Each structure stands twice: as C-alpha cells, then as structure tokens.
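Subject line: Sequence and fold of a protein, written as structure tokens
Body of memo: The sequence and its backbone structure tokens, given next.
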Amino acid sequence: MTMPTPSVFPAATVLGYPRIGDRRQLKRALESLWSGKSSAVDFADTTRQLRHNTRERLASLGLGRNDSSIPESFSWYDQVLDAAVTFGVIPQRFRDLDWSGDLVGAYSTVARGVGDHTPLEMTKWFNTNYHYLVPEVDESTPFTLNPVLVTNLVDEAAEQGFTTRPVLVGPVTFLALSKAAADAPAGFDPLSRLDELVGLYVELLADLAARGVQWVQLDEPALVSENLSYDAAQLEQVFAAAYQRLTGADARPQILVTAPFASLGALAQPVLTSGVEAVAVDLVHGDVPGGVPQGVTLVAGVVNGRNIWRADLDVARGQLEALTASGVQVSVAASTSLQHVPHTVADEPELDADLRSWLAFADEKIGEIVTLSRGVRDGWDTVEATLVESRAALAQRAAAPGVNVPAVRQRTAAITPADLARTNEKGQRASIALRKASQQERLSLPPLPTTTIGSFPQTVEIRKARAAWTRGELSQQGYEEQMRAEIERVIRLQEDLGLDVLVHGEAERNDMVQYFAENLDGFAVTTNGWVQSYGSRCTRPSIQWGDVSRPAPITTEWATFAQSLTDKPVKGMLTGPVTIMAWSFIREDLPLADTAKQIGFALRDEVQDLEAAGIAVIQVDEPALRELLPLKKSDHSDYVDWSVSSFRLATTGVRPDTQIHTHLCYSEFNDIIDAIDHLGADVTSIEAARSRMEVLGALAAAGYGRGVGPGIYDIHSPRVPSCGELAELLELAARSVSPDLLWVNPDCGLKTRHYEETVASLRNLVDAAHEVRATVTAGV
C-alpha cells in the first residue's frame, strides 16, 4: 500500500459547511425517522441528496471538484459523536444496540437516550453555541475501528465525481474533551489512552489513502483553549507524541491540522513543525504565527467564520500580502467551519436592502475567500472592482441611521456603581438574608419548591397560529385570543401537577432570543437564517446591527394575564443580555461590553415594568454565560466583569421582596462559579441531570449561599425519567445544597418536548420533590 501522489493544498478552501440544509432538511429527516413517520432507507436517501447538493453547490461557488478544497464535514448529529462511533468509544450501556444492522438507530440512542439508555452528556463546543456530545472513557473502554461514517462519504463523493477532504475531530481534542466514565478509577485521565486511539487513526488514514484520498483534515481546537484541564506543556507533549506516529505512518493522505477560535500561542511552533503538511489558523481571533517551515501550507483564516458581517477585504489583503512577502505558502480560508453561520443572504429578501449589503453568510463568505485567493494568485488589480464594492458597503454601514444613537450611548456612559446594587426603599444595600426573608414572607413557598424553567411545549396549533398571524392571515385579536387560551391551559396544567412557582409557558415566543430582538431597536431577524445548535435543533440568530433600546414593554401584558389566572406566583420570563448577545450575530464595530450595557438597560426597563405590574418572581435567563468565556485566561477577568455587570444592570433595580431567578445550562460551569455568585440572583437553576449534579460540588466548595435549582429532568432526551430516578438525583443534590436553598426543576425549557412525555415527567418530578421534601423536613 502506498500514499497517494502528494498534491499542493488548494489555494482556497473552507473548514466546514452548514450541514442542516438550506431548508433544514437534516432536521426534518431526523425527526421524521425518530417519530416513525419515515424509514431508515428514507433517511439515507434524504441525507445522501443533501450531501450531493452541498458538493455541487460548493463547486459552483468556486471550490474545486478534484483538488480537495471541499471538506466532507457532514454529520447525522454531531462530529464528536461521529468520532466516538468511528473509533468504538461507546459506553457499555449502549453495546447491546444493533450497531451492525441499525447504525443510525444505535447512533441516535447514544445522542438522545431511549428507555434505560441514558444519553451522553452534552456541552458547548468551545466558545460557540454549538453543543457536542461528551465521550465517556475509562481504562477498559474497548476502542475499535468502524470507519463507515468516514469511508462511505469518501466513496459517495467519488461516485459523484469529487475528490473531497474527510474531516475528523483530531485525537488530542477528542480525548481532551472526553470525560472519565462513572466507574473509572479516581484520577483517570482519558488522554492516558491516546496511544491506543492514535493507532486506530493510523489504520483509518491507511484506508483513506487506499481510496485515493489526497488530504485529510484533523480538527484540533483543544490546542488553543486554556479552559480545559490541561496546560500548554501537557498539550504540546501529547500532540507531539500523537502526530509523530500519524505523520510517520507508511501510508496516509497529507494532513491538515486546524486550530480555530483563538491563537495557538506557544503551541504554534510545535504544530507547524510536527510533520503535517498544512496548518489552519484563525487570523480573525488570533495572531499570525511566525516561523512557518518550507513545505508547510498556512491555511490563513482571514474571513470570519463565526459572524455574518461582510469582511473588510482590505484588511484581509494586508494579512495575506504580509504572509506571501515573507515566503509563506498560503491558502485562503475562513477562520472556522462555516457550520456556525446560515447558508446564504440570497434567502433573505425581506431584510432591509442596506442591511443585506452588509452581510455575508456561508456562500457569500466563500465568494470572499475565492476573491482573496484570486488576488493572491493573479494580482490584486484583477479583483479591484470587488474591493471597491466592499469598501463602499462598509462605509455605508458606518454612516447608516441607527448605528450610532446618541441617547443610548449617553445612558450607558452614565452608569454608576449604585445602578449595579440591590437596595431597599431607603437606598441601602439589601443583604442576601434580608432579601430571602422578605421574599419568603411574600411568596410563602414550601421547602424544595418546584418550578419549571419557562417554556412549555409549542404545539402544532400554536406554531400554525403564529405563522398565520405573521402572514397577515390571522388578526391581532385572533392571535392574542389563541395565545391567551394556551396560557390559561398551561396555568391550569401546572396547578393540576402541583407545581409551586408557575410560568406562562411562552406560547407567544418563537425563540427566547428572537422574540426580544423583534421588540428591541437595533436588531433585525431573518427568515431562513438557520444554524444548527445540536442534532436536529436549529436556531435563527438575530442580527444586532445598531445601538439597542426598548421602545415599549415586551412581556408585561402576557405575564400579568397569566398571574391573573392563579393565586400561585407566576414568573416573569426574560432572556439575559449575555445570552441575547451569544445567540445573535453581534456587531463588531463596538466593544462587547458596550453592547452588553445597552441590552442590560433595555432589560432593566422591562424588569421594572414587571415589578410595577405586581410580578413577584422574575427570571432573567443566562444559559450562555459560560459559553462566551474567552479561551485565553488573560481575557477572563475583563469578560466576567462586563458580563456580570450587564446582568446586574438588568436586575438590581427591584425591591428586596422581588425574587430574581436566572438559568444556566449545558456548559462547564466549574470555570465560572465566582461569576455565578456575583450575578447576585436570588435563585439560580443549572443543568445538572446528565452530569449527575457534577457542578454542585464546586458550588458547595465556593460557599454558594443563594437558592439553587440543579436540573433533575433532562429535557433534551425523549425519555420519561421515573420518580425514583428523579428522587435519587434530588437526594444527591441535597448532599451539597442546604435544603432551605434547594429548588426542584427540569434542566431547561420544555419547548421542544411533546405534552405526553412532559406531563408524565413533571408528575414524576413533583412526586419526587414531595418524597424528598418529607425526608428533609423530618430531619433524616
């Protein structure tokens, strides 16, 4: 067996492309398969056609059919799960599944869970809003190579007439992101099994080489992050050991290593000199590495793959000219995979024409990459017309009305420390003890109070009503009547279930961020700007193009209507400033801290209106707080300062007897325990079911003294957890959290679930709370 004939790395490429389809074909295919409405054959046909269309689309945009510039970055659900399946890193509880006869069914069970098969834990992919499934590894996990998820794509592309570039999570990143399995010995490190895993990568590379693959892409973003449990010296050591074997293999394609999201820093030279033939670096969020060896192609990520603003082509040109002048062999690319942006601006005819001219989604970014590559290759005069057009669009955006609103900027400039503190009616600081006592007097809650995170399932009828109203086919009055009817139904259901603090269910909201973006000045929303969050879950990030303010109350009418229906407290529900930013495409011409202040003030106005309307409990969700934590520790302090300040700005203008909640989910919160404390929320609910209360030890160690609701019901799985299972988790939580601080709730909102499973799960949750409450109050 021999290596394919070496080829020059393509002059223009992308590191990945949106895989959900321009009309969310993957989402619909998955959900149809899971519901039993379609077969595995139907699913295979749909996804094959989706991949076929993607390759043809990328070729039509200027990437080559046979030069490896098109990446095979498709996944049924998640690229980390793909690697786990490919290399046999499957927990014992899933080994009874039919991996040979029903691969997609077994794969889905690991991702979502079915029956007694609890799914893998899920958390954020570095500092993005994409969620990956966390592999579980112990000293005896039987690694075995099952290459079909990779080789089938290669063979399929070849049949279509393409030579493409397979994309895999690199071995160092895969194990660095893995967690020790529950039964692993104390102190077990998944990276201790790197040598075994690399052996399987060597086998797979040989297989790919035999199929004529010229280049393979190994994604190693763990190398840029300082938020993992490994320092740079450890990562350098394991990377060197792994890639010495990979690059020294007898038969392999040429290797591209990618390191997106930040600078490689001290690891730049070890990576560049590791023997790989190409290295992709993020030149939007990181630095240009020096000392690129002869024969190594630097894949220069000069176009932002994470945001949707048109690139400043003159800045990118300057970076590329500097590299080529120093003798570096350059390929032009985006900074990251384009899976983090929508497909094309062409699908957004309803956006303002000026705004559209400022934007570049995935397809437009490829156009920018191809233009820049042509400038490098053929001379910049050959693309001058495009450069002129780019300059004009950037200038027009900077001068557009609404981009700079003096009144908004004056308000944020006038913030004082008093704006960030909870006070009593005399303006004196309200202590935690005072707030707790006054809130209990007002609310009269039992020990271990039960609640939900906010949203209830959105039925087909609700979605149809919203769509008809949006199209003008349903009157405002008719729409509001349907929403009020659904709110009343949800309130009555919660009363029947016996929940203690209720929610109105958010029937009127299309999305927890978009709903606010639609009601705030400075934002725009898309029609088809879908981005994958995880699996079949897609979101449409809003676009913050200008200064932000709140022209009118947003939620007060719905909250007060819900409260009028019951004597139990109903939470007012808002999305926090950091999450609105993290789950939107935010402007890049203003510091993030300034944007956070603007959104914080807009929400402060809303919080005060809710309190004035008699709402006693107000939840301001910040599930993305950990997500935006910078990957470099030197940037942590500044981030924590402005993110916490923006939350406090939104929430501190209320009386001591108004209870402020927040919600955090699906991230590694141990890194930000101090920040969670400094938010100053009276109650914090945290995702904890899949990780079995892992975060609570850190909260206890930090002396966290406020209310906390560790989620005991994993809403991202269709499973209905039993009362016993939920009681076990709640008892586990009670070992770390004082019963007078402990709340009982699901992990997250229930919007994506069905009512049948939701009602059954919440009944079990309430029963579990009563069971453990009785034990706690008995002093046992």
